[in-house]
Design brief:
mainly alpha
Length: about 130
């Protein structure tokens, strides 16, 4: 396994484990809980798929996963945020390691994925607020 694959696998494991714990123990607004759990699970799955993906897809998947995890990490810093920041950092490091092998056009798509991830979280919070 390459360095970025190991980082991606670590990010996926942390994100998916945190999702399971979050869904099992958090009580409160059901819509918000589902939003957080679904986006964290999607980020974990994206990082897991990135382990076996081609370089262009790996870059986009890891950028999306990293952005999602980092945004939730900052927003939830007083609860599960620190562990999400670690998972997001691993995904971001994996994306930066994967970038040199990816075709030039995939960088634009990766930036769009990061912006889309942040927008998804913000819009989701607004809709479940």
């Amino acid at each position: 396994m390459t360095t970025e694959q190991l980082l991606a696998a670590g990010s996926a494991a942390i994100a998916l484990a945190t999702t399971g714990l979050y869904a099992a123990f958090v009580e409160g607004d059901a819509d918000r809980t589902r939003l957080v759990a679904l986006t964290l699970a999607a980020a974990g799955l994206a990082a897991a798929v990135a382990v076996v993906a081609r370089p262009a897809a790996r870059l986009v998947l890891l950028t999306w996963a990293g952005a999602t995890l980092l945004v939730w990490g900052v927003l939830s810093i007083f609860s599960i945020g620190l562990i999400l920041l670690v998972a997001g950092g691993l995904a971001t490091l994996a994306a930066s390691a994967a970038a040199p092998q990816a075709p030039a056009g995939s960088l634009r798509l990766a930036v769009a994925a990061a912006v889309g991830a942040a927008a998804t979280v913000v819009i989701g919070i607004a809709l479940t607020g």
